[in-house]
UniProtKB/TrEMBL annotation:
Record protein name field: Lipoprotein
Species the sequence originates in: Polyangium fumosum
């Protein structure tokens, strides 16, 4: 069973703290007072990642040549929530290498995978989750970019604000496009119930797989309609 299935079936976030920098129930990490009011929008990075970033600040923060900084990181993840690439705007090589390594070791919070995958699908045919998602019943939502809640760490005489953006890796998106399944009634009804992003993904499949371009135009025109209106269109197109 993939980690995605375990995460989705588990869904056991027992508690989320209301601080900027942590989620989880048991953490022995002590954080100094923040210099500004906490910003709590968005999902939070794991405590382990916070601890690794804090270690980087303690080791290399004094070499940055200032007292306060804001650094941006872009993290691309695979279909199992693992970071496959990390880029940043940090100029100091030691601090950059340390913090990027910390983020490469981060496991994406499960609720973000739920943003990208509608529900689990267990298969043992060796396909990647992204591939089998669009060969079976899972719809993977592409193009979604999520920002984690900002992290503020004060150590070694400096205060650093980390902003971290997560997105699906390009190779996963390519796998999604390659293995997009043929549209049928059941997939159409699932998309109708799954919200706007799932419906748009289904319309892409209609545009690619069905011979009549009018069907794709009709599909796209139903994007903002109600679930029932979409379901009626599905039955008209594919039959009851």
């Amino acid at each position: 069973m993939s980690k995605v299935n375990v995460w989705i079936e588990g869904m056991f976030f027992a508690c989320l703290t209301m601080a900027v920098v942590a989620f989880g129930c048991a953490s022995n990490i002590e954080y100094p007072p923040l210099k500004q009011a906490p910003i709590v929008e968005g999902p939070h990075a794991p405590n382990k990642t916070i601890a690794r970033l804090r270690w980087c600040v303690e080791e290399y923060g004094g070499d940055l040549g200032g007292r306060s900084f804001e650094f941006d990181y872009d993290v691309k993840v695979d279909e199992e929530g693992r970071a496959v690439s990390v880029t940043s705007d940090v100029l100091n090589a030691d601090f950059d290498g340390c913090t990027r390594a910390a983020l490469r070791a981060m496991e994406v919070p499960p609720e973000l995978l739920l943003t990208w995958m509608s529900r689990p699908l267990a298969r043992g045919d060796g396909q990647t989750n992204a591939a089998r998602g669009l060969a079976g019943n899972v719809l993977v939502i592409v193009g979604v970019v999520v920002k984690l809640a900002p992290i503020i760490i004060e150590a070694a005489g400096v205060t650093i604000l980390f902003t971290i953006t997560l997105a699906i890796a390009d190779e996963v998106i390519e796998a999604i496009r390659k293995y997009r399944p043929n549209p049928n009634l059941n997939r159409c009804l699932d998309a109708a119930a799954g919200g706007e992003s799932m419906w748009k993904e289904f319309c892409r499949a209609v545009a690619e797989k069905l011979p009549d371009p009018y069907d794709a135009q009709e599909c796209w025109s139903k994007t903002s309609m109600s679930e029932q209106e979409k379901r009626n269109w599905c039955r008209n197109l594919f039959g009851n």
